[in-house]
Amino acid sequence: MKKIILSIDGMTCSACSNGLEKYLNKQKGIEEVSVNLVMANALIKYDEKQLDQEKIEKFVSEAGFKSLGVYNEKSEDRKEKSQKGKFIFFTILAIILMYISMGHMVGLPIPEFLNMHTNPINYTITLFILTIAFIFYGYDILKNGYKNLIHKTPNMDTLVSIGVFSSILYSLYSMYQIFRGQHQAVENLYFESAAIVIYFIKLGRYIDKVSKDKTKDAIKKLVQITPKDAVIKVNGEERKVTIDEIKHGDIVISKPGEKIAVDGEITSGKAHIDESFITGESKPVSKEIGSKVIAGSINYDGYIEYRAEKIGKESTISEIVRLVLEATSTKAPIAKIADKVSSYFVPSVIAIAFVTLIIYLLLGNSFGIAIGTFVTVLVVACPCSLGLATPLAIVVSEGICAESGILVKKSETLENAQKIDTIVFDKTGTLTYGTLKISKIINYSNLKEEELIQLVGSLESKTIHPIGKAFTDYISEHKIKYLPVKQFEEISGQGIRGIIETDSNLENEKIELMLGNDKILSSNKIENNHLEDQYNLAEQGNSIIYVVKNKEVIALIGVNDIVREDTKEVIEELNNRKIETIMLTGDNKETAEKIAKEIGISKVIAGVLPSEKANTIKNLKEENRIVMMCGDGINDSPALANSDIGVSVNSGTDIAMDSSDVILINNNLKSITKLINISKRTIKNIKQNLFWAFFYNSLMIPIAIGLLKPIGISINPMIASLAMVLSSFTVILNALRLKRIK
Known about the structure:
- This protein is an alpha+beta fold and 742 residues long.
- It has 5 domains: 2-75, 2-Layer Sandwich (Alpha-Beta Plaits); 80-217 and 325-395 and 686-740, no CATH class; 227-314, Distorted Sandwich (Calcium-transporting ATPase, cytoplasmic transduction domain A); 416-427 and 564-665, HAD superfamily/HAD-like (Rossmann fold, 3-Layer(aba) Sandwich), CATH 3.40.50.1000; 437-560, Calcium-transporting ATPase, cytoplasmic domain N (3-Layer(aba) Sandwich).
- It has 26 helices and 26 strands.
- The strands form 5 sheets. A 7-stranded mixed β-sheet has the order 14-26-25-24-15-22-23, with helices on both faces.
- A hairpin with a 4-residue loop joins β2 (30-36) and β3 (41-46).
- The protein starts with a strand and ends in a 6-residue tail after the last helix.
- Mean pLDDT is 80; it is low at 74-79.
């Protein structure tokens, strides 16, 4: 299966996006479709053996819309200036049209040759010509409305099209009567209503477009953050190239004040790098040979050369943009309410309009009044605001999350975060930095301490576990030589083992070495005679490694970790929100409980295997809890996948991030409380939007039908179209209030 995101032109409401989604889902070879109204795109999962982009775009066209090709976050809207110019031109035409047709009602002077009573033919022809111009202006609306009616997926455009064509056909009949000398038929012209309805629909869409563009600011900022040019080193010489010309393995040069062009690894020099745009950390980070650099970060003060590793779509920035885009292209469960309502709402409105038309005629009203009421019902009920209510709020919130270093993969996660009642934290690398240091060595052997560390460090160099780094860092600092390791094996939840080939300074033999927690002793039936030392090390907050040589315990090594900054504050806030916090770790109970007590976590589940971590999450969910799991390692992946929301810190492994629903780019646990806060505000905003959208239609349809005429309240098609624009504008302004979230 393959994924593609297409830019879609012509969608105007939730009935449009819902109709396109339904139509595409019916096609053979398409497995899943999610159409996003605000981003104007469709995320399509399809079988590449049966379909390609061209065939999918043909389906889009058949559904009454136009594919603008694969979504390109760098592309500019080339039509923007022409659209603005066209809108201004038709605004002037709309003013002229309304002046001619309605000026006499408010006492404005009308040129004699355009007076509807003294020169009805001139008046009629002028209105007709101006209306034709508006028909061409709104051709896309009328065309989409017709196509969606044919495909049995009527939408807002269908409502407008039926109303406009009804007004024009009736006006053409009246025009025919005027030409035959029945000048009183000039009172039955509805050309201006049809034209102004189209204008107001276009006005609403123009406002929508401006507002939607604002919601994409976070993505645009990320895209524009990388430089256009860079300097690479070729055969010892500097060469200026565009960013697109950089290839894997190229040596790129960065001088003070310049931006990093692509993701890479420093091969020469050192500098302080500002990565605040992606990590939220304002303090520049010191980088040296071997350090990773991210495209878009700023070199403050040093000359560095770095090897290009991730270019183009592989870069961190492109990955962030892709994840944000995919998240905004998925649907939150709450959005399905609006979709379902729209699928029934539009056909119901058409039925109500036709019933109203028939009742008006049966009650003896003129055909002109009946058709006017018919058009008013169709126009006033257009579900624009309903279509914008959910997706606009979701996109704004996704943008806020992206700017805050929180990558949410699915909009469903954004909805569910506010329901969380239990958060389970891994310890090492999540609650702590995972930057372990050797704090104490209890040596039971006749080996010198340096020889012992050489053995342990050589074996630990084969693993990516944070504990292993404590030893490799020590070896690097003390310039100790690594020994060859064979038959390396990682024992899940227990430790590691391997065969060390020693040199002449030690014992001329192959040593079977095992490193791990006390479980590695019991599984290998080795008696543990060092419980007191283990307890003392644990009391001091150490993680403990048993060193087993040839089935004999030769040392106990304690390594210490540092609790992440702000962790205590985050746990305190979660506790105040009545969210239970649990520490889940493979480490020993004493160490885990000491750290838990220090930061305020009351419940600790220690000494668990990876499979047990996943089972713990399952057990919590069986208690009807909504569980968030926060971790960073391979061992956490099953638990992350099994939780309702899996959160991975960015320093974690690729597999942990693949298993998670949220990635904390800034590695700051405060982002968890911010995510919950954004989620609560977003859902509240969506409910407000849906309420006003439903309230508007519930209020306006009875008025459009004429039920309030006895008390002097009524509207015509033009007022109805303006009211529809104002309802959409209300929803847009309410959604944009989310940008104020701190």
